[in-house]
Design brief:
It is a single chain. By secondary structure, the protein is of the alpha/beta class. It folds into two domains: about 160 residues, NAD(P)-binding Rossmann-like Domain (Rossmann fold), CATH 3.40.50.720; about 200 residues, Dihydrodipicolinate Reductase, domain 2, CATH 3.30.360.10. Helix content is about 30%, strand content about 25%. The strands form three sheets. It has a nine-stranded mixed sheet. Strands 1, 2, 3, 4, 5, 6 and 7 form a seven-stranded mixed sheet that branches. The protein is globular and about 75 Å long.
Length: about 375
């Protein structure tokens, strides 16, 4: 049995998502568990080098988590043949440039989404990676959430019969920054910095919908900037130029209708920050981040409309929890392990840069639908 060290350039891990999900809960966790085990007993051990612009933050992160290598010099990291993977979790406006450099250096690519600020650029990255022959993947973490894995189990079992419709509710109240500190960075609310909930969340909705319910064929979307001004990290007021809410309808193959509300200006009165309700001819289910509950056709109550009497039904009590039946690991970590095995052992990994481009495509079409106030078809993409 042998240990194989895989050098990984981690660019942009000083941000919230990069630090918490990709460094601490994925790469550091994999290292602590002794690496990723292969069927022959060998292990893959990530050997990261943290790269970014802030030397103090990089040094502190490295020291805190036992990482030996860090640098503010991306070019030197790319020149080092030990580093075979390039990972990017920078802000969207910086991502494409780093990926292009890494492809040119012959590195395998793994990155956050959106992969670029435009569909044209996203497709260009997919094409460059294909021509260079480098393996590539895009983070699609919500596919590995326990709640969605339970929902996928129901779908695969045929529980729903014919799926008719899906309702997705996502969001929470992000404080404006005046009397309480905002939970999201200010660039999220500036279009010129790559912000906006449509750009952010439609990249997620595309892979969730495509992988669970079928390909998206058409979109209708209305966005909004409900809160026009917020207070930034520096304590100063700024104008919000990007959307903070989106109300969309998607049409899928098989005439399945998906309604998806995304908002940073909604107060939560549901089971979780994200809930997905699926209704089919044979049954229904509601999935959150970790839990999933279902109601089969034979257990469905028969209410009638009568506002003159007290509601006789406890609707919430009439649903059954879908059991876990397995241990669920962190979704980011699970996908990292799959990508490492893809790079080293050529295991399957379908979530490539072309799949990432589909998310950017849906975002662009959502914004265009809003601007033109009409339905738009979603063409099939090819690299």
């Amino acid at each position: 049995m042998a240990e194989h060290k895989l050098g990984i350039i981690m660019n942009g891990v000083t941000g919230r998502m990069g630090t918490n999900q990709h460094l601490i809960r994925s790469i550091v966790a994999i290292r602590k568990q002794g690496g990723v085990q292969l069927p022959n007993g060998d292990t893959l051990m990530p050997d990261p080098i943290l790269v970014g612009r802030n030397e103090n933050k990089l040094k502190a992160l490295a020291e805190t988590h036992g990482i030996e290598r860090w640098s503010t010099d991306l070019e030197s990291a790319l020149e080092d043949n030990h580093n075979i993977i390039y990972f990017d979790s920078q802000t969207t406006v910086r991502r494409a440039e780093g990926i292009r450099k890494a492809i040119a250096a012959g590195k395998h690519i793994y990155c956050e989404k959106p992969t670029a600020t435009s569909l044209e650029e996203s497709l260009q990255l997919a094409k460059l990676a294909k021509e260079a022959g480098v393996k590539n993947g895009v983070v699609q973490d919500k596919l590995f959430l326990p709640g969605l894995l339970k929902l996928k189990r129901l779908i695969d079992s045929g529980f729903f019969g014919k799926i008719l419709s899906v309702r997705m509710e996502f969001g929470y109240w992000v404080f404006e920054g005046d009397w309480q500190e905002a939970q999201r960075p200010s660039w999220n609310y500036r279009k010129e910095d790559g912000g906006g909930i449509i750009v952010d969340m439609f990249a997620h909705w595309r892979y969730v919908i495509d992988n669970l319910f079928g390909p998206v064929r058409a979109v209708s979307c209305i966005g909004a900037t409900h809160i026009p001004e917020r207070i930034g990290e520096n304590g100063e007021k700024y104008t919000c130029t990007a959307d903070d809410a989106a109300y969309a309808t998607f049409e899928l193959d098989g005439d399945v209708i998906v309604q998806a509300n995304s908002s940073w200006t909604v107060r939560v009165n549901r089971d979780d920050l994200l809930t997905i309700q699926v209704d089919g001819t044979e049954g229904s289910a509601v999935a959150g981040l970790r839990d999933c509950k279902s109601q089969h056709r034979v257990n469905t109550p028969k209410p009638t409309w009568n506002p003159d009497i007290e509601n006789p039904f406890d609707f919430e009590a009439q649903w059954e929890d879908v059991p876990g039946n397995q241990e669920f690991d962190n979704g980011f970590k699970v996908q990292w392990e799959l990508f490492l095995k893809h790079v080293f052992a050529n295991d399957p990994f379908p979530w490539d840069l072309l799949e990432g481009a589909k998310g950017t495509q849906l975002s662009e079409l959502g914004l265009k639908s809003w601007a033109e106030r009409r339905w738009l078809d979603v063409p099939e993409l090819k690299a």
